[in-house]
Amino acid sequence: MLIRLVAVLLLLGLPLLGAALVGLPLSRFLEFPPITQPIIYPDFSWVIFFIITSLAVLGVSPFVWKLIKARPSHPQKSLFLYSFPWWGKLSILWTIFFWWIAWNPEPAFLEIRRVSFTPLWLGYIVTVNALTWRRTGSSLVTDHPKSLAWLFLLSSAFWWFFEYLNRFVQNWYYQGIESYTPFEYFITESVQFSTVLPAVLSTSLLLKSFSWWGLHSTCPICPARPQLLGVLTLAMGSLGLLGLAVFPKILYPLVWIAPLVLVTSLQAITRQRHVFSSVAQGDWRPIWLSALGGIICGFFWEMWNWHSGYPHWVYSIPWVQRFHLFEMPLLGYAGYLPFGIECLAIAQLLGFYEQVRLDQSTQDVAK
Predict the structure, then answer these.
(1) CA torsion sign, 91 to 345 to 329 to 29?
(2) Are 346 and 161 in contact (CB under 8 A)?
């Protein structure tokens, strides 16, 4: 409990401390709900684009190469072991219907379009769980319904934190919220944010049902002094959060990286299990699968946001605002990789380790 309290205080307090140190008015960061406004940033830089692209490629290429070179350790079995459940079929129809509603420009559908985001993502979550159940005979929906319900509640607070961090860097803002009162905005967005954790973690668990050749026996990393490393990375993560308000045009990628570093560092210092623990045994599945789950959900978030009628977000990201896929600049998708790991780290920090465990076999039921 203490580590959670310390993490919350640092995550919320460090960006504010950085703003105070450079004399920025704190009231602009403390308004709630935090309604962001458009801001003009430097549009594009080939140098920055190349640096971020190189870092992203460098980070994922070892795993991609491992998947290409490896072979399954067991004979190929059926892709699906169970019949598709009735509730999965219903969720597919539900998702298609609300997708059609979300993109339908007819004025008659205006009011239902404004609230279509949540039912659309509920359909996605149930469909992904149905696919997981068809492959393994288990899922969050069928085996852990209470934990899944808690994830919905926790997810709202989780994403409001990123809305708070966005006040310091202003990388995205919302259109279509002008007519909302602050209370209406808070309720509407809280309901929508509740789907984030369930979507990412459900997707990661579906990915886990596949063999993911070789990722359970990749290069182990076992630091000789993990607590000292935890202290050093905690200092780095803290400095990153501290600097968000000071250098927002430069440090904005740390919105997605620094909280993950800070949380796992605290866990390492206190000798608790964390999202990177299995790496010491060479098992990179939790990292790879949660990152991939994040970017898959990111693709659907951006696609469904593209022509949506609900309040929709627009980006203003320094130096890389080019080569868009939907509303998102192409390099912006790199942020979904650490964000997926962050979703897993927060879920496990809050006590959902067994429910969303990605470092164990699915009993080789579907390879």
Answers:
(1) positive
(2) no
Interval 324-356: pLDDT, tens? 899 899 888 999 999 999 999 999 988 888 888
Distance, in Å, from the CA atom of 152 to the CA atom of 146, rounded to the nearest integer, reads: 10
Where are the domains positioned within the chain? 2-24+65-349
- CA atoms of 110 and 166, how far apart (whole Å): 28
- 99 within 8 A of 304, measured Cβ to Cβ: yes
Rg (CA), the chain: 21
Report the distance separating Cα 159 and Cα 163, nearest Å.
Answer: 6
pTM, entire model: 0.90
Q: State pLDDT tens for residues 82-124.
A: 888 999 999 999 999 999 998 988 887 878 888 889 999 999 9
Ramachandran quadrant class, 332 (left: phi over 0; alpha: psi -120 to 50; beta: rest):
alpha
β-pair partners for 312: 175
